[in-house]
Amino acid sequence: MAKLRKFVAYRRQERPYTRISKFRKKAYVKARPNSKIVRFDMGNLKKDFPVKVHLISKEDVQIRHNAFESARLASNRLMEKNVGKINFNIKIRVYPHHILRENPLASGAGADRMSTGMKLSFGKTIGVAAQVDKEQKIMTIGVAKEHIELAKKALTRSYQKLPCSCRIEVEA
């Protein structure tokens, strides 16, 4: 399997040009890759917690689905280990809609017979990303008042996995 390209290539927000048409010939995106995000809501989904701790983006950025999954795992693991499965609620508030593409150019012996160069260079799909705007809420953790510091620590761990700078805000 090919190695993931560094995200600096996809970090800047771009105009989504992912035409999917009912006519197969006119549809440029042939397939949409699956998102790696397993769950968007974790913890106790039925209880309404009095305190909400938000992770808010400081810049416009695209965030890939595998970054969201690693951020989700980091925060969920810390919360489950310290407060139990029923004393918190984590919600990922953005969805990766934007389809990322790349035009792989072959190099080496015999590459001239395989590659079309920049002709028809729309690119093949390699993943999906969420387009996050400045001051948009990315994740929210609902907890009781005594667990606010732990929720802040969990969100700090998760934003270290994301390719943007974030701030944490507490809403009581």
Describe the structure.
This protein has 172 residues and is α+β, with helices and mostly antiparallel strands. It contains 2 helices and 8 strands, in the order E-E-E-H-E-E-E-E-H-E. The strands form 2 sheets. The protein has a 5-stranded antiparallel beta sheet, covered by helices on one side. Strands 3-6-5 form a 3-stranded antiparallel beta sheet. The longest helix has 19 residues, at 65-83.
Please specify the SSE layout and strand pairing.
Blueprint: E1 41-43, E2 51-57, E3 61-64, H1 65-83, E4 88-92, E5 98-102, E6 124-132, E7 137-143, H2 148-159, E8 166-171
Keywords:
172 residues; alpha+beta; Aldehyde Oxidoreductase, domain 3; five-stranded antiparallel sheet; three-stranded antiparallel sheet; 8 strands
Count helical runs: 2
Principal-axis shape: elongated
CA radius of gyration: 20 Å
Distance between the termini: 46 Å
Total beta strands: 8
- Strand order, sheet with most strands: 1-4-7-2-8
CATH topology of the domain at 38-101 and 122-172, by name, is Aldehyde Oxidoreductase, domain 3
Query: DSSP strand (E) fraction?
Result: 25-35%
Main structural class? alpha+beta
CATH architecture annotation name of the domain at 38-101 and 122-172: Alpha-Beta Complex
Write the H/E string, N to C: EEEHEEEEHE
